[in-house]
């Protein structure tokens, strides 16, 4: 299938999905539509339906109805559907990658990598579907038996971000479907096409209509409908801490299960005893993946004083080689930022740092390509009180902070409300354990800057969120535990 084929599938998908969850309508003609832009060029690449509360309620009803049959399938049957979906995602890897680059801006190689990463969640959960084990607990009375069953929580509302238009969907929908839940998915308004294409491929895989429903458009109306519906029993979200707090408060009204993957402020700690090359390459990967637009991107690079100058020099040289441009361009590794607001945020953070004494070692301004391109930037002499250290910059800016002792590094690293990912670079085994245990973070990379994988638990502590995605632990977020007490076993 060609790129235009995938785009067509996305639109056909949207019509089929609407048709499937809006039974009263033969063909759904939205009252409003919304433009989708290519962030690298500003070009309008599609118009998609702009939906609101009414369509979301219809989608919830559809998911609620489908739950009855989907949850009653055998695990093996659900597993087969998921495996087929994985196969189709992989068969369309190149085109899906092109769609991601087109609507999100990340370089094509990285976008195709995201399809691989995203599809693996579906493959993993196709396998995990068969392993939802219960328990038998030794009873406290001779005539009793105690069983523990795990059952799907029900309809899940999934709200996903633009930075991984596919992988954040599959990381939620995969375990939800594996457990027997059905889903109402709201993708980001900036990147709905990948979601529609993925949903269409789910239908083609034989996953019944109503099991995965996509609603796009007016975020507050869609969010309200999901939060207030008693039929939605679970909210799963990736995005900002501010929105996560609102969802958590909104979910309280109907006491829903909630999992939140929120913002980070990742420290990347380089100790004097680190291998310089490993540290430079690891920090580069941790910082500049997706042009700095991931929740696990290194936000602060803390460097011990003995290696500071050498690291700053080698790191700046490596950053200078990062080619910026349209994600379809040959050799491009840094795409545009998602929109003007993101660009202005990066500018404000850099201006704040420079006004308080930071030195620009490299970059520090908009890129000559215009649009939302920003130069890969390295700042030195950064202090903890600067905006760039306190909050997530979500852009291609690496602030270097100097520290003297291990205790100071741990204190600086933990001095934040966030607690998603942290990275350390050291060749000292005792230090590896000491520091890993002392860091108040959900993920720690040791001598490695890219640590996300479908087989490991992903999630934060403190205000970076609740719950875990990926791995066997990701299943727990979509399951309820039921205790069954069998009494009077000795009755004849
Ligand atoms: C995110 O930025 O939220 C996800 C990053 C990842 O999965 O590695």
From TrEMBL:
In this chain the Aldehyde dehydrogenase domain maps to 35-484
The pathway it acts in is: Amino-acid degradation; 4-aminobutanoate degradation
* Reactions mediated catalytically: succinate semialdehyde + NAD(+) + H2O = succinate + NADH + 2 H(+)
Please state the Enzyme Commission number of this protein. 1.2.1.24
Where in or outside the cell it occurs: the entry states: Mitochondrion matrix
Q: Which NCBIfam families match?
A: SSADH
Q: What is this protein called?
A: Succinate-semialdehyde dehydrogenase
């Amino acid at each position: 299938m060609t790129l235009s084929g995938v785009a067509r599938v996305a639109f056909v998908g949207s019509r089929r999905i609407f048709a499937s969850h809006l039974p009263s309508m033969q063909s759904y003609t939205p009252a409003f539509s919304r433009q989708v832009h290519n962030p690298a060029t500003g070009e309008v690449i599609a118009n998609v339906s702009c939906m609101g509360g009414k369509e979301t309620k219809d989608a919830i009803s559809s998911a609620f109805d489908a739950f009855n049959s989907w949850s009653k399938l055998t695990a093996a049957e659900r597993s087969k559907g998921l495996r087929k979906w994985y196969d189709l995602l992989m068969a369309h890897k190149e085109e899906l990658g092109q769609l991601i680059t087109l609507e999100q801006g990340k370089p094509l190689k990285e976008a195709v990598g995201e399809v691989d990463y995203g599809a693996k969640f579906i493959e993993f959960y196709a396998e995990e579907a068969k392993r939802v084990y219960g328990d038998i607990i030794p009873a406290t009375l001779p005539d009793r038996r105690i069983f523990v069953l795990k059952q799907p929580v029900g309809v899940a509302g999934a709200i996903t971000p633009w930075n991984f238009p596919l992988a954040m969907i599959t990381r939620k929908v995969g375990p939800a479907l594996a457990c027997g839940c059905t889903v109402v998915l709201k993708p980001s308004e900036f990147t709905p096409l990948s979601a529609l294409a993925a949903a269409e491929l789910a239908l083609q895989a034989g996953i019944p209509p109503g099991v995965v429903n996509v609603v796009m458009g007016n975020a507050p109306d869609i969010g309200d409908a999901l939060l207030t519906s008693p039929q939605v029993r679970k909210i799963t979200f990736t995005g900002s801490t501010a929105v996560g707090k609102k969802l958590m408060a909104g979910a309280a009204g109907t006491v829903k299960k909630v999992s939140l993957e929120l913002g980070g402020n990742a420290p990347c700690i380089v100790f004097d005893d680190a291998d310089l090359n490993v540290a430079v390459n690891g920090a580069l990967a941790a910082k500049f993946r997706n042009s700095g637009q991931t929740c696990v991107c290194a936000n602060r690079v803390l460097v011990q004083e003995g290696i500071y100058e050498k690291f700053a020099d080698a790191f700046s040289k490596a950053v200078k080689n990062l080619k910026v441009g349209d994600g379809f361009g040959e050799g491009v590794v840094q795409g545009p930022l998602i929109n003007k607001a993101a660009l202005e945020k990066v500018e404000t953070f850099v201006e704040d740092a420079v006004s308080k004494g930071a030195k620009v070692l490299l970059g520090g301004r908009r890129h000559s390509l215009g649009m939302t391109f920003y130069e890969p930037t390295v700042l030195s002499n950064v202090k903890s009180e600067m905006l760039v250290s306190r909050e997530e910059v979500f852009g291609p800016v690496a602030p270097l902070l100097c520290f003297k002792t291990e205790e100071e590094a741990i204190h600086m690293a933990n001095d934040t409300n966030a607690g998603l990912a942290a990275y350390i670079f050291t060749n000292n085994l005792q230090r590896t354990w000491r520091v890993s245990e002392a860091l108040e973070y959900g993920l720690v990379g040791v001598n490695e800057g890219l640590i996300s994988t479908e087989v490991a638990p992903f999630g934060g502590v403190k205000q970076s969120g609740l719950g875990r995605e990926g791995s066997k632990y990701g299943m727990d977020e979509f399951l309820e535990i039921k205790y069954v007490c069998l009494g009077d076993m000795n009755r004849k």
